[in-house]
Amino acid sequence: MNWEMVAGLTRHLMTFGGGFLVTQGSITEGDLQALTGGVIAIGGVLWSAYQKWGKTAPVAPKIGE
Fold first, then answer.
1. Is the distance from CB of 22 to CB of 29 less than 8 angstroms?
2. Are 35 and 27 in contact (CB under 8 A)?
3. Which end of the chain offers a freer environment for a tag, N or C, measured as fewer CB atoms within 10 Å?
4. DSSP 3-state assignment of 64?
């Protein structure tokens, strides 16, 4: 199973879970939107950190050397 399959399956499971919670009355539609936005924001930060993990920033040369 490759990354695209895992990501697609995860999206569908989260959509199903969120829809289930809304229809059961456990959360409101607004709560689901806020939760989704939070998960996406945290995911973006984690993905950015993962992409930069182990990479060093280039060192700017000192003027006059």
1. yes
2. yes
3. C
4. coil
User: How far is residue 51 CA from its own chain's centroid?
Assistant: 13
**Is the CB of residue 29 less than 8 Å from the CB of residue 19?**
no
Report how far residue 2's alpha carbon sits from residue 11's, in angstroms, rounded to the nearest whole number: 15
Q: Kindly give the parts of the chain with pLDDT less than 50.
A: none
Q: What is the pTM of this model?
A: 0.62
- Sort 35 into a burial class: Cβ within 10 Å, 0-12 / 13-18 / 19+: middle
